[in-house]
TrEMBL record:
Signal peptide: none
Protein's UniProt name: thioredoxin-dependent peroxiredoxin
Thioredoxin domain boundaries: 9-155
Functional summary from the UniProt entry: Thiol-specific peroxidase that catalyzes the reduction of hydrogen peroxide and organic hydroperoxides to water and alcohols, respectively. Plays a role in cell protection against oxidative stress by detoxifying peroxides and as sensor of hydrogen peroxide-mediated signaling events.
Subunit note: Monomer.
Keywords: Antioxidant, Disulfide bond, Oxidoreductase, Peroxidase, Redox-active center
Organism: Herpetosiphon gulosus
Gene transcribed to yield this protein: bcp_2
Keyword Cytoplasm: no
UniProt keyword NADP, yes or no: no
Catalytic activity entry: a hydroperoxide + [thioredoxin]-dithiol = an alcohol + [thioredoxin]-disulfide + H2O
Length: 155
């Protein structure tokens, strides 16, 4: 379920809200998370791929720093709930992974590379739902974590 039209988002835009199942199959609604914490929302291409393992493990290793800074980390890919469940268990991920099977939320956020490939894009969303920062780099997975931490700590 989504509430905006697809397109490239920019800093200052309101983050489109959505509901997607997490790795336990429970629906997570972005709107219900807003107002409590900043959100680090990262889109990644595929569970179990080398770059994505590096990225999620780097987020895992810095998760407590994000929490102490008042932020919640959420990852999204088009993998299934079952794949996310296994991926999270294999790498001891303490944060939520959401399954966007149809790619609707990815499209809504414009989180693609060259407009067609599943991109690696991180959005920092404040408590009011406003996008504070966007970082996109398909090849530099670890830079997503350092960029997100920098922005969260500056806010």
């Amino acid at each position: 379920m989504t509430t905006a039209t697809a397109g490239k988002l920019a800093v200052g835009d309101q983050a489109p809200t959505f509901s997607l199942p997490n790795q336990a199959g429970q629906l997570v609604d972005l709107q219900s998370l807003l107002g409590h914490k900043k959100i680090v929302l990262f889109f990644y291409p595929k569970d179990h791929s080398a770059g994505c393992v590096a990225e999620v493990c780097a987020f895992r290793d810095q998760y407590e720093v994000f929490k102490q800074a008042g932020a919640e980390v959420i990852g999204i890919s088009s993998d299934s709930v079952e794949s996310h469940e296994q991926f999270a268990a294999n790498h001891r991920l303490p944060f939520t992974l959401l399954s966007d099977r149809e790619g609707a939320v990815r499209k809504l956020y414009g989180a693609t590379t060259l407009g067609i490939l599943a991109g690696r894009v991180t959005y920092i969303i404040d408590q009011h739902g406003t996008i504070q920062h966007i970082f996109s780099s398909l090849l530099n997975a670890n830079k997503h974590i350092s960029e997100a931490l920098r922005i969260i700590k500056e806010a």
